[in-house]
Amino acid sequence: MTEQENKNINMLREEKIKEIEALRSQNIDPFGKRFEGKQAIKEVEEQFSEIATSEPSQEEVVIAGRLKGLRRHGKAAFADLEDQTGKLQIYVKSNFVGTDSFEIFKKVSVGDIIGIAGSIFKTRTGELTVLANSFTLLCKSMRSLPEKWHGLTDTEIRYRKRYLDLISNPDVRGVFIERSKIIRYIRDFLDNQGYLEVETPMLQPIPGGATATPFVTHHNSLHRDLYLKIAPELYLKRLLVGGIEKVYELNRNFRNEGISTKHNPEFTMLELYEAYADYHKMMEIAEEMISYVLKRLRNQLIVQYQREKIDFTPPWRRLTMCEAIQSVTGLIPEEITDDNLGSLIKKYQLEIPENTKKGDFINELFEKQVEHTLIQPTFIIDYPIEVSPLSKQKPGSPHLVERFELFVNGMEIANAFTELNDPLEQKKRFLQQAENKSEGEINQHFVDYDYIEALEYGMPPAGGMGIGIDRLIMLLTNHDSIREVILFPQLKKK
């Protein structure tokens, strides 16, 4: 913003402050009070959509919102009033609202919030309009809104000043209204399936349940470091031990890692667990739940996402990770050995050490070569044991586990396992994971011994799944950046 633009903004602000002082000098509160009887503009439009006469209706309506347009004509004015549900034209005339009230109305401007009570009529052009019988100033705006024809388009400002984005761009409000609906439909589905919604700690003594860098904080009274939740998994599975057989949490996770169009350090995750189930059951739940949400939201199972038509009609494709790699690269993963691993790392230009384990190589190769090709909903199943410390081993395949990830349009949406419930094997994998983190030395602080003890009491066979809610909402609302579906995304310092 130029120095002159800043100067103009400050001059306008000073003028508006003078208007506020002038209103107060007349004993008029420029910031209003409770406003009774407000109706949603959308409901008013639906109720009177069939009105066919230019004569005002006998029934009074009461609406309130922000002025988005104002056209003055002497002792009368047309304006556009917008609330969360829509926009409606109003007509304010001196001999209807009274001279004193109209004098106050002459002091309002675009951006102010007002209330109107009046009758509905249609103009000669057929536009539904409220003829005001009374007017109430509810909040005087001190700053001018963005230029009305183009709205707020600067992406940086849109994210930093989301309130201004919501005022200026009704479509953005629509995204977050849909976000709320999607989360409500997910809850409806799981509640109807007999799952119990719970809450687990945000502050945890051990950052467990996922491989990620945690945020660290310090609790003064306890004299100890705590970690913001990177996943609720180990707490939710403790509840399976305790006899809660179907459980879920819609929670905030925090991971001290990169920011991108698909990653935000703070994000929303659904995690659910079901006793006596496995990863095949979790695939069924994923298909049923997302189909349920789409039917409620769109009444169809085909979604237009960017340039692709995504068909969510079940059943979705299922491929093993090895099959997916072979189909794209021609490489047969079963033929990878310690002898040829180094040359394969160079061939596929993977940024991993040459002494990487085979399972880590397979996973890295899949991420670099295959993920982006998975456009239609696809379950990639049977992962290497090295990258899946909480999954149960696949019978007859010592190097694989019963795990899947769901990919849509090249993006991971869900991650699920047949849960490992063998405490001895779990302890062994935790120790291996802790050793990897500290480069050869076991960091006991990252081994959740209490969870291992819980498993020793017995956890039933179970399936579990995590779904990235923000990414799912990106798909269902046709946005290619996670920042478009998070109200207040994390941003770099100005």
Give the percentage of residues in beta strands. Answer: 25-35%
Distance between the termini: 14 Å
**Number of DSSP-assigned strands:** 19
Q: Portion of residues in helices?
A: 25-40%
Which class best fits the helix and strand makeup? alpha+beta
Mean of the pLDDT scores?
93
The helix tally amounts to 15
Descriptive keywords:
494 residues, alpha+beta, 9-stranded mixed β-sheet, 5-stranded mixed β-barrel, 15 helices, elongated
Structure report:
With 494 residues, the protein is α+β, with helices and mostly antiparallel strands. 34% of the residues lie in helices and 27% in strands. The protein contains 15 helices and 19 strands. It has helices at 3-25, 41-47, 94-97, 99-105, 155-160, 162-168, 170-192, 233-241, 279-297, 321-329, 338-347, 358-369, 423-437, 449-456, 469-477, and strands at 60-73, 76-83, 86-93, 113-122, 128-139, 196-197, 203-204, 216-219, 224-228, 246-254, 266-275, 302-305, 308-311, 317-320, 378-384, 393-394, 397-408, 411-418, 462-468. The strands form 4 sheets. Strands 6, 10, 11, 14, 15, 16, 17, 18 and 19 form a 9-stranded mixed beta sheet that branches. Strands 1-2-3-5-4 form a 5-stranded mixed β-barrel. The protein has a 3-stranded antiparallel beta sheet with strand order 7-9-8, with no helix packed on it. α13 packs antiparallel against α14 (449-456). It starts with a helix and ends in a 17-residue tail after the last helix. The relative contact order is 0.09.
